[in-house]
Queue: 4 jobs
Job 1
Amino acid sequence: MSTFPMMTVQQHILEEQRRLRPGASGDFSWLLSGITLATKMIAAQVRRAGLVDIAGAADEGKNVQGEIVQKLDVIANQALLQCLGNRGNVAVMASEENAEPVVVSRDWENGTYVVIFDPLDGSSNIDVNVSVGTIFSILRRSPEPDKYRTPLEDVLQPGLKQVAAGYVVYGSSTMFVYTAGNGVNGFTLDPAIGAYLISHPNITMPAHGSIYSVNEANADSFPEPYRKYLAHLKSGKAGRQYSSRYIGSLVADFHRTLLKGGVFLYPPTSSHPKGKLRLMYEANPIAFLAEQAQGVATDGTRRILEKPPESLHERTTLLVGSRTELDLLKQFLK
Ligand code: P6P
């Protein structure tokens, strides 16, 4: 038995591809390697964020080295646009940082994939050294090549159409977690060799948890069924004592829910009556991972993955977690 878990994420993706798509061209694994490369570049910047801040700006926008100091999420966005833009099989990219989809100038005719991402979700937490994350969602471009569709039409597909989704959480360690529709696997970045090595094979969400995760400051403006549900969990009448954990970074809050179970909720609030989280690059990839790990993801009325998107940056309510906690929530929402 080797001392190190030598299964890298690249190897895993290739094996997945061989098993699921024998004879495939390998372009899917080439695409995912563009994402893993970009996230290693982002991790390097996130890990030194404080230093940049200390260096600060010698003058407007420049640090003492004369470099242009950019917000980390802009840097993260550029890393993903560059690393994916030159893969040769990406037709369109869409980002939380860009108002409109980005058409990859090359290969528009041959580009197979659409990649949607939140380059640095929760970036406001960086200043206080709290975990942040990159979230991505991969779709295929429309199967009818003869039917012209605008880049936005190629992006606005329901979550059920995702061929892969995942995130990188820049936490106490840097972890890459993804699904290609055949379960969820987690990889930890070994900085010594710059490779993601398998650390969490076949992740399944516990069917019953003991943690609820919600921003309690908004509770007074939640619709009543949510308030009653949370009161029920706190009362001990749900059969166990629950703890409350809320990091305020979706990737970190979901990662804990994926591994430990329980429920994460972002219900409608007075400031966000349709929910705050973004459908295309937060809720959909998270929902795909949750369902692949035997969990549940809904907006309170339907599966997140079934929602027909109307706009790139539309928001949604997100209720995601273990089957027991979500089935109970559905009883309160009826
Ligand atoms: P609130 C971060 O800004 C984010 O988009 C998610 O990562 C996180 O779950 C949510 O917003 C936190 O929102 O209103 O609780 O600060």
Job 2
Amino acid sequence: MSQGILVINAGSSSIKFAVFGNGDHSEPELRVKGQIEGLAGDPAFQVKNSEGHTIDRHNGWPHGVALSHADALRFILGWLRENMGQTEIVAAGHRVVHGGLVYDQAVRIDAKVIADLDQLAPLAPLHQPHNLAAIRALAEIAPDLPQVACFDTAFHRSQPRVAQLFALPRKLLDSGVRRYGFHGLSYEYIAHKLPEYAPNAKRVVVAHLGSGASMCAIRDGRSVESTMGFTTVDGLPMGTRTGGMDPGVVLYLMQDRGYDVKAIEKLLYKESGLIGLSGVSNDMRDLLCSDDPHAAEAVDVFVYHVLKYTGALTAVLGGLDALVFTAGIGENSPQIRERVCSKLEWLGIRLDEAANAQGGPLISTADSAVPAWVIPTNEESMIALHTRRVLR
Ligand code: ADP
């Protein structure tokens, strides 16, 4: 019998999970990775082995049935018992979007932690309640299983105070209305991994370009600035989110165009970004092969903002020793990387087209003053690492 750590990333309509070995490797060893999608209706379960090959599927639930987080976790634990009987799950690590000002590292979950995280739910209403639902459900299903919360905000707690403050009245700042930053588990993984590639890189900009997208300035392995702030809607335009926008637009839409809070939320989080601009798709792959001019313009706006923030983050760092691309678009789209890097020659980045086409890891030429890298992120592995550390 060997030991395993269960990693859980619970959202509104899906639960993603992975099992890692509980050995001593610096990179936890993945055993399986899977998900149940469609919790609100027509659920589908899929699981892959460590090589990425699908080893099982299930979608035999009655048509239209919805699963609660508890139902889904019971199914996942049942599957693990039946199919991985030789692996004893000794702990569960959860991705939790918001740790507020208090949690600057992963923490063992108890009643006090749950109460604290509940209080933060209004700061991340689209994610935090679902993260907590899975934690509560698992506590009921397996009360003796230690659970650990790993936060998307924690890595950014090292940011200097000036980076965290909005220019708002003190009483609002003191009550927690601040810039937090997200995608922290991804950035922490890259910071943990980068020394293997570029041991001397001290000032690093990481572009996490996925359907959610943000960028982070890292100095000496610690976050000093990020493009997401109080919520996950700030910064870069994303698949369906606006990115940073003049808050006066929100006032105008509410005062003169009849938008209420729900309509604003839908607009900012679901109807904007690449889908809003293109009217075609929120998926960069679709936009890159579309001949619709609005699709091309959506890509232009996306690339423009990546460039703009690369400049801003480089200024914060006082120079740049490495640029890193990661996440779905960053890892898989040579075109987007090419479009960004070709406009960064002023910064000393010279793209190696062949290396870029092959996906790197190094995608800049030998004489590039600043190297550019593609490093696949692995938030689940980071959660497994934290969980192991907290357990011990
Ligand atoms: P998230 O974790 O935020 O859901 P991912 O990091 O998985 O997102 O990124 C998903 C996005 O990556 C997709 O929406 C798609 O736009 C983009 N993507 C994946 N592969 C490619 C590719 N080959 N070219 C361009 N974009 C891609």
Job 3
Amino acid sequence: MLKENGLPRTVTLDTAAAELVIIDQTLLPAKLKLLRLSQIEDMCEAIKKLRVRGAPAIGVAAAAGLYCLAARYVTENEEEFFSKLKSDADTLNATRPTARNLSWALEEMLGCAESRKGQGVSTIKNALKVKAKDMEEQDVAVCKAIGEYGAALLKDGDTVMTVCNAGALAAVEYGTALAPVYVAAEKGKTVSVYSLETRPLLQGARLTSYELTENGINTTLICDNMASSVLAQGNISAIFTGCDRVAANGDAANKIGTYMLAILARHFGIPFYICAPYSTVDFSTKTGKDIIIEQRSPEEIRSLWYRESMVTEKANIYNPAFDVTPAELITAFITEKGIKKPDEL
Ligand code: MRU
């Protein structure tokens, strides 16, 4: 829907220029600016600083980015080519630890290159270009499918709650948690959204409120600590969130604050859905305890959005970017293959 409104894709590969093009999300909602990246330092900086963020978007960006880097290798020697490719993939993969889509996308790209081994560097480069573009298009199709399954759960007039940004800005288009809202709207249903602002980086305030209202969706922003008070009023029909990594037992890591919402949903008897593509599911990670949770800078809490520090220097600051919701609190996962209970993935 964002695209129909004339806004660009969150992340796209410009195949002609061999450049990764992203919306710089650190500037939203004040400014819509595109960045063109072709150097690994800039790509890593963009992922670490959350210029591009959200699990599917990071995955697609890494795939496109790896192709852009490979396109610039000057060697015709395959051994040298593969050594550079693996090293760059490792560097990109090290930018953020929690989102499974990042390592998944890089593994897909390396697998594509490996399958062309012996066919020459230019054939491999071309295969990587096709693969990266295909992953970008697949992301749109997968998110749309999640939207279709999720929209079937929504009635005209429903209001849902969400945290962080798992919308179009977290994928190529549509997103995951907001895809059901967009698809429901496309089908003529009116669905409203309560968005948690999502301290400390304010993805809910800056990004979710922006993209939903740009698309004509009635949106109400609340501070994170207002969630229980709003849920107690009885007007929220479901909670929809995205996800960064699902463990084999169905425990799911997502933006810090998601676990809190899952507990509240259970308390108030509201369904709690996690919307995620299968590329987010990590069957090699047994339970949520094995998921690495990214720890971010104290400055994001202390001073990032303020003119001066809001915290005495003497206070310790703890800033985990994600939490893990246990499988037993998740009503179901909405995936591109349908709606699955945690033990049906
Ligand atoms: O730190 P972020 O902004 O990358 O965190 C994003 C989230 O937690 C999203 O909910 C998740 O990546 C799913 S996006 C479709």
Job 4
Amino acid sequence: MTVSVAIDLALDRLFTYSVPGELAKKLLVGQLLRVPFGGRIARGFALAVEENAPAAVPAVPEERDLFGNVIAPKKKPAKAAGFSLKPILAIEDESPFFSPELLKLVRWIAAYTASPIETTLKAALPAAVLKPSIKPKELLYVEPVVPTPADARLTPHQKALLADFARVGGGWLQQLVREFKTSPSTVHALAEKGVVTVAPRVSRRDPLAGRRVMPTKPLTLNPRQRQALEVIDAATKPVLLHGVTGSGKTEIYLQAIARVLERGQGAIVLVPEISLTPQTVRRFAGRFGEQVAVLHSALSDGERYDEWHRIRTGEARVVVGPRSAIFAPVRRLGLIVVDEEHDPSYKQDETPRYHARDLAVVRARFEGAGVVLGSATPSLESWRNAQTGKYALASVPNRVAGRTLPAVHLVNMEQEAEKTGHPPIFSSPLLDALHLRLERGEQTILFLNRRGFSRVLECPDCGWTAQCPDCSVPYTYHRADDCLRCHVCGGWTRLPAQCPDCQNREFNYTGIGTQRAEAALKRCFPSARVLRMDADSTARKFSHDDILSAFRAGKADVLLGTQMIAKGLDFPNVTLVGVLNADTSLHRPDPRASERTYQLLAQVSGRAGRAEKPGEVYLQTFAPDAPAIAAAASDQGFGAFAAQELAARHQAYLPPYCRLATLVFRSKIDELAASWADLYARSLASWAKQFNAGKAGEPFRVSEAVEAPLAKAEGWFRYQIVVRAPSTRDIVAAVKWIEEARPAPKDLRIVFDVDAQNLA
Ligand code: ADP
Ligand code: ZN
Ligand code: ZN
């Protein structure tokens, strides 16, 4: 018997070992093994087991030539098969870390995103699970012996204590001691008399410990919700659940999951990292209690270890987490829910560059599970799949209980600027609306997609701006610590005393950040209670939740924040939403800029008027005619925007009408990055010529090599090529062909992103 092993190094190939007889009986794919490797001992995952001694050892992945034919691997296996294969040394853990289905998914990702298999395996497993130092936590547990031995001689005090323990059925020693005001030695004395046992037991490190979770019952669904639930339940293909904000999508998910659990299956719920707030988690834990496992980036290693093992053993059957939770080892997977499926945080921006929404569809297919993609503003990829019938569509066009969507007003900031000579932070219509809310005791959310005090420090005389030397972006002034910070690399510097170019000592601050908006707001409304929420104010572990809880409890009139507050929040008393600059994401060099802008505005607007009182939204803009902005303020809804945007994408040959990949060339040596980008662009163009021969409309298109929009980051120069083609496989084949011929030199990194979500 032989086994192919992915060693814990990014070598992107598998190594074949023989399996000694005594291990052969226990060997399973997905197990973590110990193997000899180049004179040391390495760990690796068993990917495939061959019963018979191999005639051919396929130690390298299949490769294809220019025309898609399979060619013989160039890298030969080191030794002829059957001869000197080394035996594996041990099986580290008998229960596999990956089920065969998950391994299939991992291999699919590695091939699709052109990533090394080992890196992909690693991304699919929480690091805490593989750390030898992380172990289950054991505490002493006390259990009354039933029935109480007849010959036990207890003092009246001991008898009373035993009765207390019996009533609660035992518990953790520490807790019982606290609850019944006794001491550990008293409990140990009971154990000596044989009436209780005290023994170590694995204690779960519960991420929700100490947080109140109120159990909830299913709500009675309205007809549209019920219809959607039936579509989900009966579907044989992915379902796109398009429901406006506040239409009760979460309740639909909860009831769909309940049905899955009744059938003895499990479910995964993906939510954007940013909306993985305790509020969201509580909604699932409130319905499914202990069966819910949470995977969150803020968990401790111990919590993550325990949650992962609870999932693997089947103790937890509902997993709620961000994109990496798509790899949760849920048994008998019945349903995957992707909430806010359009959210950019589902795309992983390091190798393997997978998109969790797409993986949800692939994993569901592999495991015969259902999949629901939910959003008020679906991605155009998913929307088109629903239009062509590849996905089923379930729509909930109205808010629950007859509540209306907010009235959205555009404020033309060009005109506002004419009134005062410069654009104000708060326009007069927004100020009036705010004033009204303060009078009525209602709450307001103000949204500004930029943290810090002011964006840029600028010399009014010569136009010099303070810029990070390692990144091609201006510094942002942070008032709290009176310094300039780079939002790309995190570096900082003090304020200059004078302009380095012209020695002028006065500076202008241009642009508005959350801190400056907060200061301006306090000047306009000195008595208003304002909470600010951005990356600076939420650095502590629970401050995110604390701020939201305080706002919910009515301890503030205004919540002012970045996109952190755009999604998922449900505050009944919020009747006004103001977007201070609706245009921030509009002018980015990104094919999805318009889509993102619309999504963001619709999501923020959706925070207003979610309960009985109707809501109102003010969008401050310099571009009231831009399609995304105009659509966000019209009552035509998402469908109208999508139709218009899809037509534009079709015209321009952009996703979803093609696949768009990027290659980014990074080097500390500017010339090196530039010349290699150019070389690749030319090679790809010649590939494209061959590919397109005889085909209509140039389906394979390669851009010139250009400076990336972020031309320099952390000292690395960046150049970029954009490739478009009918399928990702076509693009991967072309890039692999060039990489094979022209492997990158030492000082150059080439980052290949097969479904690039932005061109940064
Ligand atoms: P969405 O996720 O679509 O934005 P939510 O699921 O958050 O909407 O629902 C908005 C509010 O409506 C929540 O407070 C929820 O409890 C409530 N809700 C959902 N469905 C119903 C229903 N059928 N009847 C009454 N209230 C509901
Ligand atoms: Zn100057
Ligand atoms: Zn920087």
